[in-house]
Specification:
Chain lengths: 194, 77
Amino acid sequence: MAKTIPSADTNEFQRLAREQLPRLYAIARRLVGDDAEEAVQDCLLKAFERFDQLDDRLAGPAWLARILVNCCHDRGRRKARRPREVELDEGADFSLYRKIALEDPFPYSDSLHLDFLGEFGAEDVRQVLLRLPEHHRAPLVLVHMFGYATGEVADMLDAPQGTVLARLHRGRKQFERQLWEYAEETGLIEGRNR
Amino acid sequence: MISCRQAVDQLWEYLDRTVGGAELEHLEEHLARCRRCCAELEFAEELRGVLRGSASEDVPPDVMERLNATLEELEER
C-alpha cells in the first residue's frame, strides 16, 4: 500500500527532488548509461517512501545520491555484464602519459599531452567510463566527477573505505588505458598532423 | 630513492592527499629530482580536470517531463 506522508514533508521532498534532478540524472548517466532515467525514477519512488527517515534535511542531497547509487547498482546487477567492460587486471601497469609520449599521435604539437586530452568531449569521457566494470567505475565517477569524499562513497557503496581506495586506484589505471583505446577506435587521434 | 614506476603509481593518491608518512617523504624526494615524474604529475592533474569538467549534462526535455510527472504523481498521493 502507498505510504502517506504529511503535506509539509511532501513539499519539502518535492523541493529537494526537483532541485537535485539534474545532478541525479548526470550521475546516473555515468553509472548506468541509457538506464539513467529508469534509475532516477526508482530513486524518486524509494526516496519518497523513506523521506520520513531523513533526520537531517541538510543532508538531503547526499541522501538522495546514496539512494540513486543503490538503484543504479541494482539495475547493473540485473543486467548481463557489458561486453565492452574491461577485464579486472587490464590496465594495472598502464601509463597514459608514457603511451602518448611513445606513440606521439600529434608529431607537430608542442603540447602533445594536453592536445590528446583536448580531443575528449564530455560525451567521450562518459563513453570511456561506461567501459569500466561497475565496481571500478562508481568510485571514479563519484569521487572525481561529483566530488564526494571517499568516506561518503564507502557509505554509498556499503564497502570499507580501504576497498573504495583500492577500487579507485584500479579504476584510474583502467580509465587511462580506455581513454587511449577509445581514441584509437573512434579515430580521435587519427588525421591530426599525420 | 623509489623508482619512477613506484612514484607514478602513487601520483593520483598524492593529489588526493592520501599518501602519508614515509611514503610521502619518498615520493616527494623522488619528485624533487625527477623531471619526467613531475610532468606525469601535471598530466594527472589535467586528467582529473577532464573528469571534473565532464560531470554536467542537461536533462533532455522529454526525460525531464517524465521525471516531473512522476513527482507530480507522488505529490498527489
